[in-house]
Amino acid sequence: GAVVSQHPSWVICKSGTSVKIECRSLDFQATTMFWYRQFPKQSLMLMATSNEGSKATYEQGVEKDKFLINHASLTLSTLTVTSAHPEDSSFYICSARVRQSNQPQHFGDGTRLSIL
Amino acid sequence: GEDVEQSLFLSVREGDSSVINCTYTDSSSTYLYWYKQEPGAGLQLLTYIFSNMDMKQDQRLTVLLNKKDKHLSLRIADTQTGDSAIYFCAEKYGPGGGKLIFGQGTELSVKP
Q: Comparing C-alpha atoms, which of A114, A78, A115 is closest to residue A96?
């Protein structure tokens, strides 16, 4: 149980393109989803927290107009990197959790984004 | 602010026990977690412990929590080559305790 699917797993695109990453909870309803960014050989950095049906809460220093997050249903959240540039290249990972905050976060397999 | 520290590398022989250590700063943490990350993949939840517990065992995994010293450890018995990965400890923080802060990760290398 508690499976989180992330798609695509790898995307390469040209500078200036917008890229959408999907995060789905397959066998549970995720009232809260989290988006992280991970640089090579480093830990995870929380970008934003999204609750179903409301606006995402972004961490300090994360541009909300650059990283658009939508959490329209209890099983799907999307992250859109708008007008991506090479410095946006990274490994993006989502996680999902049920309503009770004492429950653990379950992670997707990540999306490797490469901007040329 | 909140901080979680781990040693970066650990190398063991196959069949030995591995002990990965973690220290944290937030004394109000309610839950502490261990996640495993294999190359190019997301994080797999291994186990977690509530702050009112001292120890939790799950098959080959044993978690020890010393609240006084804010020290958490993960022991893997009979370590196998398939256990080679990066291990992250994490503590809950933030309003309502909904967020996680991660350590830097410990790279475990298991030699045959």
A: A78
